[in-house]
Design brief:
The chain is α/β, with parallel strands linked by helices. 66% of the residues lie in helices and 9% in strands. The protein has helices spanning 4-16, 20-40, 45-67, 88-107, 122-125, 131-141, 177-190, 202-227, 231-246, 253-284, 287-298, 308-322, 325-333, 342-355, 358-368, 375-391, 398-409, 413-426, 433-448, and strands at 77-85, 115-119, 145-156, 159-170, 194-198. Strand 3 and strand 4 form a beta hairpin. Helix 8 (202-227) runs antiparallel to helix 9, helix 8 runs parallel beside helix 10 (253-284) and helix 11 packs across helix 12.
Length: 458
């Protein structure tokens, strides 16, 4: 019995090391050992006290460090799992059959190397109950994604089940509130939030749940990465999720939804890249960016090619690459009647004006001004028309449309006057007799609201 006591103490310390009682036990045992040894060696009393103090301080430092939660390594994406199970035997089963397979799945695929997988110790996981608790521990661990919950055994009927309650949170840079809410709702829809696994058949069920959680986690992290501006990483995550879900049973509702949604999400990335390429062209007027935009648009899935924003980009690409005005107009007409699509009417107005059909152009501009369009978009439209006029002076009729645009869309009457005056100076009255008459009339109308009528002089 006497020989078993040291072993009992070691087992007690091992079990309760991270608790205060464990620290106290270690300090007492260490103090007794050191005093006994030093006293027998007839060491100076001050040296004994110094040794006790330093060794005790070292133990306390180690104790505090061992109680810290894990932290994400630099330049890694933290994937934190916090699942509490009160029963030690069930906790071992959970670790073997759920968490270890989940770790393996997270670390595989093209995106796996960037993940730092962390499991929260049970003593800390026990206190993660509410979303606020999860958010606090996620921040302490510097994790980007957290899966948390509890597992318990329950008897349902004459059978025992593991009941798994799971929740998840994902970090992202500041984004509009409605997008953040949408991510949360989609997460709640797809994540295995409450799973019942029969204990007699739990191995395959646990592994299935691990695969399910891994696929959904990568999909949701991909959405957050995309909205945070990291399009390449988002595409890698989507690709991993799509590869994995393609190997699963398509009858399962969540997998069926993901098979439909992931290609659409990937298309959203190419749309964002196409917009970025257009922005680069605006700044440089280098047609290589238009070629790049065209290649991105070709990779968008068929389900999204008819979206107004995509159609606008395709029409711009057709005009800039080929001056294919008729096909661009045909494309835009398909979405012109959609709600809140003022940009489409502005584009149609420009294209008809480029063809010389100023009557139809103005009709579209009148429709366009009834929609709310962001000021920076209006500025881009004005700059684009001005650029085309500079490149093709023979398209002098664009001054007419530009004048109407500046007058009605931007409210810039001074610039509108200049545009109308330039149209009247360059236009062939035999081709544009009606428009010449209207431009003169509009100049008078603008002048009547202007305190400086001299601006009307041509």
């Amino acid at each position: 019995m006497i020989s078993a006591k040291p072993l009992d103490i070691v087992a007690f310390i091992e079990k309760y090391w991270c608790e205060k009682i464990g620290l106290l036990t270690v300090l007492i045992v260490l103090t007794v050992i050191e005093i006994t040894f030093l006293a027998n060696s007839k060491t100076n009393g001050w040296l004994i006290l110094a040794t006790l103090f330093l060794s005790g301080l070292l133990v306390v430092i180690v104790w505090f460090m061992s109680r810290r939660p894990p932290r994400t390594a630099k330049e890694k994406v933290g994937f934190l799992v916090s699942i509490y199970c009160a029963d030690n035997r069930e906790n071992e089963k959970l670790s073997e059959d759920f968490i270890i397979p989940l770790r393996r799945l997270v670390k595989t695929g093209k995106a796996g190397k960037v993940f730092h997988f962390m499991e929260l110790p049970q003593r800390l996981a026990k206190n993660v109950i509410e979303p606020d608790d999860a958010l606090l521990i996620r921040l302490r661990c510097r994790a980007h994604f957290m899966l948390y919950g509890r597992v318990r055994l329950r008897k349902i009927g004459d059978k025992e089940f593991h009941i798994i309650d799971l929740e998840g949170i994902v970090a992202h840079t500041p984004i509009p509130q409605q997008i953040s809410v949408a991510i949360t709702e989609e997460f709640a829809e797809l994540l295995p939030r409450k799973v019942q696994i029969e204990t007699e058949n739990d191995l395959l069920s646990f592994q299935f749940t691990s695969e399910w959680a891994d696929i959904v986690a990568k999909y949701i992290i991909g959405i957050a990465a995309a909205h945070s501006g990291d399009l390449d990483y988002a595409e890698t995550l989507y690709g991993d999720a799509l590869d994995r879900v393609s190997q699963q049973d398509p009858i399962f509702p969540v997998y069926s939804k993901l098979k439909e949604r992931i290609p659409i999400r990937i298309s959203e990335l190419y749309e964002a890249r196409a917009h970025a390429a257009l922005k680069d062209w605006v700044e440089s007027h280098d047609l290589r960016y238009i070629d790049r935009m065209g290649s991105y648009l070709q990779r968008i899935c068929e389900a999204r090619k008819g979206m107004p924003s995509i159609v606008d980009l395709r029409a711009i690409c057709l005009f800039l690459k080929e001056r294919n005005v008729d096909e661009a107009i045909s494309l835009l007409k398909k979405t012109a009647d959609n709600d809140n699509n003022g940009v489409c009417h502005y584009n149609l107005g420009f294209l008809h004006s480029y063809k010389g059909d100023l009557k139809t152009a103005v009709r579209h501009y009148r429709k366009a001004v009834s929609f709310e369009v962001e000021p920076e978009v209006l500025a881009m439209i004005e700059d684009f028309i001005t650029w085309v006029i500079q490149c093709e002076p023979g398209q002098y009729q664009l001054h007419y449309s530009l004048g109407f645009f500046n007058w009605k869309a931007k409210g810039d009457e001074i610039q509108a006057q200049k545009d109308f005056q330039e149209f009247l100076r360059t236009a062939d009255p035999s081709l544009y007799s009606k428009e010449t008459e209207l431009a003169t009339k509009w100049l008078e109308e603008i002048g009547s609201n202007d305190e400086s009528p001299t601006t009307l002089q041509r």
